[in-house]
Amino acid sequence: xxxxxxxxxxxxxxxxxxxxxxxxxxxxxxxxxxxxxxxxxxxxxxxxxxxxxxxxxxxxxxxxxxxxxxxxxxxxxxxxxxxxxxxxxxxxxxxxxxxxxxxxxxxxxxxxxxxxxxxxxxxxxxxxxxxxxxxxxxxxxxxxxxxxxxxxxxxxxxxxxxxxxxxxxxxxxxxxxxxxxxxxxxxxxxxxxxxxxxxxxxxxxxxxxxxxxxxxxxxxxxxxxxxxxxxxxxxxxxxxxx
Length: 242
What we know:
By secondary structure, the chain is α/β, with parallel strands linked by helices. The chain has helices spanning about 35-40, 50-55, 65, 85-95, 120-135, 175-190, 215-230; strands at about 20, 45-50, 100-105, 150-155, 195-200. Helix 5 (about 120-135) crosses helix 6. The chain has seven helices and five strands, in the order βαβαααβαβαβα. Strand 1 (about 20), helix 1 and strand 2 form a beta-alpha-beta unit. The chain has one domain. The radius of gyration is 19 Å and the shape is globular.
């Protein structure tokens, strides 16, 4: 057992805040409001993922919610439905926190999947993400000039070796690597001052003594991802790894 000692007379600097949360302080459909609690706790970041459960399925954050018709024109404001997400993000800023926006879809536990498939056109998907970012950071489409630095591409594509059983990514490993590469390069080119990353790994539990096949795959996926995006033939930026 390690012994940790603290000398309270010596200052080394500030501890980085580690108490960010998933989902914001308000729900529009149930009337719950934790804004005061968020303020008192000084929550630094709110990650926007799995928003359908407390916040109203089919309306918030997810690509298919904000951009209902995938075949529509990403350069047209009429292709987007920002209303519910605008309300959601406004509440986060009013609580004193900042959003950490996950670009992708929420997890789908039922046997039938609807939105966790590889996009049929990766660049088109990236242009949709571009429109979302412009709306919240550059005022596009009657939008805002929010300080939103972190934009995360997808969530847990490593959540199962078999795509048919993966509740977050019904595609192959290489299909995700390609999506990330296309989207990250496109978005970093359009927004060089923002942080583009991902991919919201399931975790590195395989480093513990109780590794199982699933957690071993998480590590395998991670190493293969890094090899892919650092390959000069198809390199991609990674401002942060989540």
